[in-house]
Each structure stands twice: as structure tokens, then as C-alpha cells.
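From the methods appendix. Each design record in this collection lists the discretized structure first, followed by the designed amino acid sequence. Records were kept in a plain field format so they could be parsed without special tools. The example shown here is representative of the layout used throughout.

RECORD:
C-ALPHA CELLS (354 positions):
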């Protein structure tokens, strides 16, 4: 056909769809698995490091894998509206897929706490955007209550169709590597994605006998309920995507951690921003800050010797969202451009050519 395939077409047999499901797709998935050789050299490790760049999905995050399935199933049920609570990316994805399906979308976001790029997406796709004076956890509570009272389809990761769609990333990684990775590092917020990947890897293990990767999840230290084993009432982090104090899939994340003999730990904002700049400057990959929790986590495990730097194997870091979602953070975090008069000499001097 030559138009590229979305994940429903590519993985029809492992998803909860049938011939009667109207496929709502923006050709999500098939994102690159980038070999991070510069980082590998910088870290001085013996294993291969790969970056799964999920920021290259149609709306700029991994949510699209889940959303194509959730919105297609909503269309199959003839739902007229979808609703979600969001730290930003879910709202961007839900509003785009709802637009494609000709459905109404309602997104409930914490006021003043989502990155500008994500807000602009929800608005341009025509969602009804409601900003609530609370945090993500408060928004999710309201959305759950609304779903009990009104005829709207919830498309947060509590919707099992989201998990089904997102598990396809495990299949893609395994297809490209020709095997499952030894370790997978990823950020954890509401914990739907770690749940989805783990489901995918377990299916692959059952079907093909390939070994299970160790699942390594990372929360920001100001928003680390799973690590601290308590609800965090006022979660705080620069990585607004994962500013979540009471993850909906908490139990499933703990199972993924324990069954895989992996770990869930926290990384400071400073370490997240450092890793984020490193990804951009060393590998040419611009992810959003929350995504960099995966690399910050890998570095933490090397420091703690939780992972042997000389082991020969493969490590995948999931980069969940695109850096352009949050350009303010980049401009705030790095050196401002030099301003000079229009003069060849002045520009040459400012550019370090002379
Ligand atoms: C870039 O959009 O929760 O652990 O409402 O946007 O599956 O929640 C986003 C989460 C990681 C964490 N990286 O994934 C939302 C939302 C990015 C994200 C996560 C999110 P989960």
C-alpha cells in the first residue's frame, strides 16, 4: 500500500480488535530504536545501549499506541465522546484521535501544570479543555466520577485497550533486536506504560520462549510514591509528565518490578535534566524531560553497581515523548544565544571561528 501501517494493522492478531472495528489510526508506532554509541562510550560500558524514540509517534508520545486502540474500540461502541485526565500527553493524543474519529473529546488537566506544546495540541484538535485547580491525581478522580455518571468513554490507561495498544512497543523492540533486551529502563508516572511493556514481554516469552527483560522504572524524587510506598499528596518535579502522586496502575508496576527481578527507584530533577541535555547533545535526540528519567536511571544503576558495566548484553531506554513538547524548559536550561551586530567579524568571533 505504501502508506505505512498503524499498530492495529501491524499487530491485528494480538489486539482486541476484529473485522468490525473501525480503525482510527494516524499511523502510529514503528518508531526508531537508535543505537546510542556516543553515550555508550561516554558511560564506558560493555553493553549496547538503545533508545526507543517514542517521541516520533504522530502526536509526539507513546500514548498514541494505546489511543489508536482505545478510540477505535470507542468508535466500535458508537461512543460520542472520550474523556481523560492528563499531565499533557494523554490529552494531546486523545484529542487528535478523537478528531480523526469525528468524536468529541474532553480533557481534564491540572491548571498551570502541563507543558505548553501539549496544551496547544489539545486546543488545536478541538478538545473541550478543562483546567482544574488541583494536580493530576485530583483530575483523575474527577474523571472517574464523571465516567460513572455520564455516557463518556474513559481513555486513561485504566482503559485496558490502552494497555493492549502500548504493549506493541515490546514487540517492535524484540523484532528489531532479534531478541528481548536484558534490561529496559523507563520513566514511571501513572504506571500504565510499564504495565503494558511487561504484558508484551510476557506474551513474547510465552509464545517464543525468549527471556524476560529486567524492568527498571524511574520516578522523579519529588513524585516517587511507588519507591516510598506511600501516596504523595503534593508531587513536585520539573518533569511535569510524571508529576503523579497516586499512580492508577501502582499494583501492576510493583508486579512488573518483582516478577522481572528489576527495580523501581527515583532520580532527582537535577539528574533528569542532566541526562536530558546529554541525550540531546551526545546523541542528537531531543526528548522531553520526563523521558530522560530512563537514562538518569541507567546512570544511577551504574553508580550503585546495580548493573554491571562490563556485562555483554543489551539495554533499552524508552524515550517516551518529544522534546518540542516543552521548549520553555530547554530555553530556560541552556545558554541563551549570543546577540551581536550585523558584522561578519563579530559573528565569526561570537561563533568561535576566530
Ligand atoms: C512523556 O499524559 O500520565 O507511567 O496524562 O507523558 O504510563 O503514566 C503521561 C505520562 C512518561 C509516564 N513519559 O507514563 C498523561 C500522563 C511521558 C509521559 C509518562 C508520561 P505512565
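DESIGN:
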Amino acid at each position: 500500500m505504501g502508506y505505512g501501517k498503524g499498530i492495529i494493522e501491524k499487530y491485528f492478531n494480538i489486539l482486541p480488535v476484529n473485522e468490525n472495528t473501525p480503525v482510527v489510526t494516524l499511523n502510529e508506532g514503528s518508531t526508531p530504536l537508535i543505537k546510542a554509541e556516543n553515550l555508550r562510550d561516554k558511560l564506558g560500558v560493555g553493553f549496547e545501549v538503545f533508545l526507543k524514540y517514542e517521541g516520533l509517534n504522530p502526536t509526539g508520545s507513546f500514548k498514541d499506541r494505546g489511543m489508536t486502540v482505545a478510540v477505535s474500540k470507542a468508535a466500535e461502541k458508537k461512543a460520542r465522546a472520550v474523556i481523560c485526565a492528563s499531565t499533557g500527553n494523554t490529552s494531546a493524543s486523545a484529542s487528535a484521535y478523537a478528531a480523526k474519529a469525528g468524536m468529541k473529546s474532553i480533557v481534564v488537566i491540572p491548571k498551570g501544570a502541563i507543558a505548553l506544546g501539549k496544551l496547544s495540541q489539545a486546543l488545536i484538535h478541538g478538545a473541550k479543555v478543562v483546567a482544574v485547580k488541583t494536580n493530576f491525581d485530583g483530575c483523575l478522580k474527577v474523571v472517574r466520577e464523571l465516567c460513572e455518571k455520564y455516557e463518556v468513554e474513559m481513555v486513561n490507561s485504566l482503559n485496558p485497550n490502552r494497555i493492549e495498544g502500548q504493549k506493541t512497543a515490546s514487540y517492535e523492540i524484540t523484532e528489531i533486536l532479534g531478541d528481548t533486551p536484558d534490561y529496559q529502563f523507563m520513566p514511571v508516572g501513572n504506571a500504565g506504560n510499564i504495565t503494558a511493556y511487561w504484558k508484551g514481554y510476557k506474551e513474547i516469552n510465552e509464545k517464543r520462549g525468549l527471556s524476560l527483560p529486567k524492568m527498571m522504572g524511574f520516578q522523579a524524587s519529588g513524585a516517587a510514591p511507588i519507591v516510598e510506598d506511600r501516596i504523595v499528596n503534593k508531587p513536585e518535579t520539573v518533569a511535569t509528565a510524571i508529576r503523579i502522586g497516586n499512580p492508577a496502575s501502582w499494583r501492576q508496576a510493583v508486579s512488573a518490578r518483582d516478577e522481572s527481578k528489576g527495580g523501581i527507584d527515583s532520580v532527582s530533577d537535577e539528574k533528569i535534566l542532566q541526562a536530558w541535555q546529554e541525550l540531546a547533545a551526545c546523541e542528537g535526540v531531543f526528548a522531553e524531560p520526563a523521558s530522560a528519567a530512563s537514562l538518569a536511571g541507567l546512570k544511577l544503576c551504574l553508580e550503585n553497581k546495580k548493573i554491571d558495566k562490563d556485562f555483554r548484553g543489551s539495554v533499552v531506554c524508552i524515550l517516551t515523548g518529544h522534546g518540542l513538547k516543552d521548549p520553555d524548559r530547554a530555553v530556560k536550561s541552556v545558554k541563551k544565544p549570543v546577540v551581536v551586530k550585523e558584522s561578519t567579524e563579530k559573528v565569526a568571533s561570537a561563533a568561535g571561528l576566530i
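APPENDIX NOTE: The first helix runs from residue 7 to 10.
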